[in-house]
Amino acid sequence: MKLLNQKPLIAIIAIFFIPIVIKSHNLKLTYKVENIQNEIKKIEIENQYLKKNMYSNISLSKIRTVALLNGFAIPQPYTIVMIDQSEQKIQKDKNLFAKITHNIFKNRNL
After folding, report:
1. pLDDT tens for the 110 residues of the chain, in order
2. Chain-centre distance for alpha carbon 95
3. Helices in 1-110 by DSSP H: which ranges?
């Protein structure tokens, strides 16, 4: 037995089932969008936390105190800092990064 007409049957199926497929696809997309929005909120919160930590760690007073605790000396104005790279000096004192030489004043010629 032959169906009445296949074209009307296909049209009826399309009319009823295509919206269902579209709605399910839309639901899946909205679920993905909500998940991505939640991830963005979490990343923004983490970003604010990291910014706060970064700004608190790069303050000049904190850098100065950490440097002084690590043994760095603050050179006076017009002081020449020489970097010693000889292997003998490095082997003697591995913590030595630089040594401060004598002061040079503005009016003194080199």
Report:
1. 455 667 777 777 778 777 787 888 888 889 999 999 999 999 999 999 999 888 887 888 888 888 888 887 777 777 776 666 666 555 555 554 555 444 444 445 54
2. 31
3. 6-57, 60-69, 87-92
Nearest Cα neighbor of 74 from 35, 48, 100 is 100
Do 79 and 94 contact (CB within 8 A), yes or no?
Answer: no
User: Whole-prediction pTM value?
Assistant: 0.42
Alpha carbon distance 52, 45 (integer Å): 11
Reading the block at residue 18, the tokens are 């295509």
**Cβ burial 35-57 (10 Å sphere, 16+ → b, else e):** eeeeeeeeeeeeeeeeeeeeeee
| Residue type, position 55, single letter | Y
Distance CA 32, CA 55 (A): 34
* 108 DSSP 8-state letter: S
